[in-house]
């Protein structure tokens, strides 16, 4: 057993998350970070095509419509797909903090079944930061932004540098994104974090 704690409660000396001065303005659409991302990429036919908007604090909102390709049981969304929608929404919080962060831990509560055709209204918010760790929560509601909660997640993201992707991603995809000026622009946006 390692000594690592898996608790999602921020340590006592964690600080509040601080909205970066160059974060997208409230209401601004946060574009896809990668065309072939299953969560937000336009190039994935059966992907979630999540479109996320900046909130006023260190928070974001997004919508996702459950389609036939997202089923687990007949006519119902697969739980893993719903967890992905929460994960993707949480991942967008990096834009508000202007850091790149990947999911370290994601704990999901499934409270109501979500039928195919449902629009899931998602919100995510960072609640605390401790060194490279970002503690955050996300909620998916059905029937409208104030509708009943169907899914909820507590999560801990870990800040990483671009090298995390360059060192670990398959060479073909890494070379392709490095050759794409739009993608390089996305990556560069995170490189300077005053
Ligand atoms: C050219 C490219 C262009 C790219 C353009 C932009 C791309 C923008 C992409 C954004 C994408 C988002 C998409 C949606 C979100 C995903 O789905 S991300 C994908 C899923 N997640 C992953 O693949 C992460 C896999 N895991 C890892 O790589 C490593 O375990 C991690 C998370 C980076 C941590 O490893 P590490 O850097 O060695 O850090 P480590 O010292 O182990 O941990 C740091 C701290 O976190 C704690 N910690 C780490 N893991 C855990 C855990 N599971 N539980 C509890 N605590 C933990 C440690 O205890 C430590 O705490 P302290 O000592 O500071 O108190």
From TrEMBL:
Gene3D superfamilies: Hotdog Thioesterase. Residues 75-142 form the Thioesterase domain. GO terms for biological process: fatty acid metabolic process. Residues 1-25 are annotated as: Disordered. It is a peripheral membrane protein. It is found in: Cell projection, Ruffle membrane; Cytoplasm; Membrane. InterPro entries: HotDog_dom_sf (IPR029069), THEM4/THEM5_acyl-CoA_thioest (IPR052365), Thioestr_dom (IPR006683). One of its GO terms (molecular function) is hydrolase activity. The keyword Thylakoid does not apply. GO terms for cellular component: cytoplasm; membrane. Its main location: membrane. It catalyses: dodecanoyl-CoA + H2O = dodecanoate + CoA + H(+); hexadecanoyl-CoA + H2O = hexadecanoate + CoA + H(+); tetradecanoyl-CoA + H2O = tetradecanoate + CoA + H(+); decanoyl-CoA + H2O = decanoate + CoA + H(+). Belongs to the THEM4/THEM5 thioesterase family. This is Acyl-coenzyme A thioesterase THEM4. It comes from Streptomyces cinnamoneus.
């Amino acid at each position: 057993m390692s000594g690592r704690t898996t608790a999602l409660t921020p340590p006592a000396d964690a600080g509040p998350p601080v909205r970066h001065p160059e974060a997208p303005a409230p209401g601004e659409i946060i574009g896809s970070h990668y065309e072939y991302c299953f969560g937000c990429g336009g190039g994935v036919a059966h992907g979630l095509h999540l479109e996320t908007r900046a909130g006023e604090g260190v928070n974001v909102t997004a919508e996702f419509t459950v389609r036939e390709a997202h089923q687990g049981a007949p006519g119902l969304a697969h739980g893993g797909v719903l967890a992905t929608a929460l994960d993707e929404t949480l991942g967008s919080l990096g834009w508000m903090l202007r850091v790149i962060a990947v999911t370290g831990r994601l704990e999901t509560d499934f409270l109501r079944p979500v039928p195919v055709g449902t629009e899931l209204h998602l919100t995510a918010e960072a609640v605390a930061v401790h060194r490279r760790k970002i503690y955050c929560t996300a909620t998916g509601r059905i029937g409208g932004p104030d509708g009943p909660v169907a899914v909820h997640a507590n999560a801990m993201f870990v800040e990483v540098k671009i090298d995390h992707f360059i060192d670990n991603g398959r060479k073909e995809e890494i070379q392709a994104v490095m050759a794409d000026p739009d993608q390089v622009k996305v990556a560069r946006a995170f490189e300077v974090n005053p």
